[in-house]
Amino acid sequence: MNQPPTMSHDPIDHEALEAIRDGVRSLCQQYDGEYWRQIDEVQGFPEKFVTELTEAGWLGAMIPEAFGGSGLGLLEASVILEEVNRCGGNAGFVHGQMYNMATLLKHGSEAQKSAILPKLASGELRLQSMGVTEPTTGTDTTKIKTTAVKRGDKYVINGQKVWISRIQHSDLMILLARTTPLAEVKRKSEGMSIFLVDLHQAIGNGMTVQPIANMVGHETNELFFDNLELPADSLIGEEGKGFRYILDGLNAERTLIAAECIGDGRWFIDKASRYANERIVFDRPIGQNQGVQFPIAEAHIEVEAADLMRWRACQEFDAGLPAGASANMAKYLAAKASWEAANVCLQTHGGFGFATEYDVERKFRETRLYQVAPISTNLILSYVAEHLLDLPRSF
After folding, report:
1. What pLDDT digit, counting tens, does each position of 131-178 carry?
2. CATH architecture, domain 244-388
3. Catalytic residues, which ones?
4. What's this model's pTM, rounded to 2 decimal places?
5. Which of 158, 133, 330 is nearest to 246 (CA)?
6. 129-241: which CATH topology?
């Protein structure tokens, strides 16, 4: 049986993390439930919030100081996004830049990093989109059909992507495409490459964007590529190694999503606890009834347990160790815990939980997404079964 890597972890400096929480919380308190309800109602984008979060330096947390950022790790970044959700907001509008940055930081050339990172830190540019998923392949990434063919000093892109978020509010996108046909590689994970796409140049010049209306107002799209030309220096790292590169970004993504779910879970538990103390039925607060208080207590325990796996995933990632197992398990546990907390919170509020003014139904819809994306719970279970428990590969 395979075991996750062991390491002597430095103690987590929770005092320093609390300072980050205080700073993010102070900003988020300016954006109350009414602000987020208005955004949700029109399926809009919280432009003012994102701009202020950027200008305060929070979205540049993982960018090295030499490039204008704070030089912090995934651990600190996870706390920033957790706190956004814990304050009742939706970090899904900003998390893309955090995990997309991990790919650029680890595998981008010095020229790419020097040109892009300072502008990301200042807010002049946004890197909020990653083009990986396709309509016919889903999470079977090695079967992607989008191709990138080298012609002179350019790559020509043809294909299709789906569920690609925040295109309308991003300047750059990381794109995964196949540069060597699947039939010509020894391993199916070979022959894919990643590119940095300037969206302003690409849209209307070989790239078409089709928005997808959806349940949670999550700004996401289908993309079509018809002979889109990218300069050769758009390639990140070596040609053919893109799948391995993209995994770094995906491990960061799953860990950050776990943190957001923990933030959601804590929001639901706080909301349910307050309501259970305040709501009087039969001359007593409903929270006095064990049938109400036990589910809230159980949800709290599950969120706290998921939080421990989040810390492990962050520490492994920041130490440069393989973090795939911990990142997947953190995402699984946190998404499950937040969804259970959402159900408990809604049930505690009864009919009022369905009223938009309480924000429960909005957050309920938002956190449900993470059972499905960015990777479904079933795929995580398959990963654990195969890679940690040595069970036969199921697909």
Report:
1. 999 999 988 899 999 999 999 999 999 999 999 999 999 999 999 999
2. Up-down Bundle (1.20)
3. 253
4. 0.94
5. 133
6. Butyryl-CoA Dehydrogenase, subunit A; domain 2 (2.40.110)
